[in-house]
Amino acid sequence: MTEQGHEHKRRSPADWWLFVVGLVLFSAIGWVVTPAIIYAEKPQPLNFNHKLHGPDGDAGKSCEDCHSFRDDGSFAGIPRVESCLECHEEVMGETPDEKKLVEVYIKGKKPIPWRVYAKQPPCVYFSHAAHVKNAGMECTECHGDHGTTEKLRPYQENRLTGYSRDIWGWAIHGWADPPERMKMDDCADCHRENGVREACFVCHK
Amino acid sequence: MDWDRRAFVKFAVGGVTGLHLSPLVWKLMDDVSIWTQNWSWVPNPADGALAKANSFNPATGTAVKVRLINSRIIPKDAYNPDGKAPRTRAIRVEGNPEYPLGLGIGGVVPQDASALQNAYLGDVRVKAPMVLDKTTGVYKEISWGAAIDMVAGKLAQLKKADQAQRVVAFGDNPDNTTGQILKAFMAAYGSPNLAFAPRAEDTLALAAGLMLSQPEIGFDLLGAKYILSLGTPLLEGFGAPVAVRAAFTKWRQGGAKLVQVEDRASVTASQAAKWVACAPGSQGVLALAMCQVLLAKGLAAEGSLNGLDDFKALVDSKFTPKAAAHATGLKPVAIEALAVEFGQAKQAVAVCGPGPGNEPGRLGDFMAVLALNALKGNLGKPGGVVVRGALPLKPLAAPAGASAAGLKGAARYAGHSNPLTMAAAALAGDPYKPKMAIIAGANPAYRGPQAGTFAKMLRQVPFVVAISSYLDESATLADLLLPAGTFLESWGDAVTPYGQAQASYGLHKPLLKIQPKSKAVGDALLMLAAKLGGEVAAALPYKSMAEALKARLGDGFKKVAEKGWWVQEKVSYGFNGSVDLQAATIAKSLGHQAASHGHSLTLAAVPSLRTCNNSEPITPHMIKILTDDTLRFKDQTVVEINPETAKHLHLHDGDLVTVDSTEGGFQARVKFFAGARPGMLYMPVGLGHTAFGFYRRGRGGNYNAVAKAEADAVTGLPVWGLTPVHVRKV
Questions:
Q1: Cα angle, residue A69 at apex, residues A65 and A72 outer, rounded to 5°
Q2: Level-2 CATH architecture, domain B130-199+407-567
Q3: pLDDT at position A11, please?
Q4: Which of A171, B100, B109, B260 could bridge to B269 as Cys pair (CB 3.0-4.6 Å)?
Q5: DSSP helix/strand/coil, B544
Q6: B22 at interface of A, judged by CB pairs closer than 8 A
Q7: Which residues, 6+ apart, have CB-to-CB distance to A40 below 8 Å?
């Protein structure tokens, strides 16, 4: 039997730096790349200036004027193009978005294919009437300052689930509270804090 | 530093650890789990214009509005950009606030609120006509034409062989148009063997017919200031529950007094001003003892009552408070005090029946309560017993004269007024075995009475046709299945609910086609009649159920179809008929007491709006709202027992027991309940399906399968409110 003749080489500390480099590099890649891999940015059909339409703007409307409740108490959501028609029968301003609204959607009698930031999965039953009318919550508690923005922010769609990024929240680590996030845990937390029943079937019918 | 294998591994491990410190993996895991949630079908109704259509739920007697989206009843000028035919979908059933008997509240019961689930749960719906291949046990889809040909062929063959009477039929309700069509069909075909689900309406109509010569009577609950409920589950499904709840609200607001006489501390008892805990099944005896007090103390109303002397003799001899004390378990002074309070109260009414599950009840009990009302002098008065107006309906075209000849010589099964004795006779082949059974929109193999007897009979009949919306307990025993529409999908009607003071009528129309091949039960019978030709076709000259309803309602059809209901404008006060107290009949009916056969306990059912027990099954949503006090561990029936009784039987709270009667048994959890009468056992009614898929099958026991029915001594109708049982700890 001959000796192997191998002497254990002394490893330099640089080897362990490689571990640290890998850790930092891939962690950074993960943080940066995750949103790009998971979410696809999709354009809104046209820009909408909430500030201009809102109470302090030219139109001087309140949230409820356009995002109204129907006579039966159900929430109408995003206004239909007929609501826009009340004022925008003809182009009033100079923005290309308004021009598009009037020419393409109002005159073309087409509904505007808005992408809804706060749209919950179909298995969730959410009643605006119960929260706004009965519980007296403000729109901003869930929707933040959306009603005072001048430009619609980008809409990001989850490539896997098809849901809006607003549900998980814009903080990619997911540690946030409404209005930055609209996950089931947020609903449950608020129900628990306010002594409202949080059984599954309250929301999942 | 060398870039060797070890260095690479260090770098890679660092990289993987680094990735795990980023949100990538965790976020992806969350997304993948959400993504997989969408693999199975998730109801995702498209948002769209909303419309409401009026309808009527015949099972609950509730006038409803059905919310439809993408509706075909959108106004024509509505915004409809793509011009595609809108797809209608119902998203909610809500109460109709315009319904006058709901007093503008527009409420619903859980069965209405979750009715869409029954309609949309596709795995338990009969989707197409299907015939059973007896060699493989598999159903094969066939066309409607082929199915009707098959049934008509068999019917014609039996008729030709002079065996028409060997066709037996079971229907749900004899008074609605479907029931009338079935009656006309069987009469013209020539078989007398037709039975409907036994109901308290029949007993009340018989009692009122005998005593007041007016079968159509009701209790003026809205006008009453003092309500004595003799075992009536007023708040647990009596009559049309929404209308009764509205009356209850009015009592509360107007200071009316409700006294509940019942063996168990029920929901109604808990809401009443006073609960009188009498022995089970002794309400009739109590009513007679109260009559005795009214007569003895001169509190009875003056007026001519036929047979008063006989009645007096009967109550004085057998039903004095002292004599009734044993049967009712009440002290004579308590009976006297109750009678005096009732006698002196203004606008007071005594209400009777129905038992849980709309059990017909004993004729004597109903007659005793009517006698109490007659002695109180409230007949035809506000807050009393009133005669209902007529419905705005014409009868169906009279069966052709030849049909009587068809029935000649066709022997009925014994006790034909009782579907149970009919089924038992058919089972025994006395005097013959049936060759064919038609189940038209009913489920006797679940609802019974003695559901097991029906199931056994259906298994023995060579050819069973079931016209059913669901693959229910009866349909799963059928050789040929015909898909029936639910009330949302088909034409149909409902007549005045039990005991209601004003006559009312409900009409439902097809709002959507959830199962495109389904037809109304009446439509299937009319198709069959047309195919058979001859007398049967002549007796039923309607092309469709809609046409039959149009013919019955005449000019009023359009208006009723739009609104979904018709209600008699006002309660018709005034009673000018004669009253016959019929003491002998009362004594005969009450004289018969069921023997307990040495069983240790008596089982009774507890009705509830949460579990329901009518022509429609409980929905999965309703099972979800049941607490552990009704259904434990998702599938075990809870039986209530008085702690004292349990002590004698060495039972503890939460024990698992088997409950056995002569008809069947089930396992249950014991729950101590001080409101349960000693010696009694109470179970919920409306559970324990053996069909209806994953969410409903095997959830608890079925009272109707365990109950032992006895025939009423006078009417012959089955009575199954109290069943002797043995309880054994597992």
A1: 145
A2: 3-Layer(aba) Sandwich (3.40)
A3: 60
A4: B260
A5: coil
A6: yes
A7: A156, A157, A159
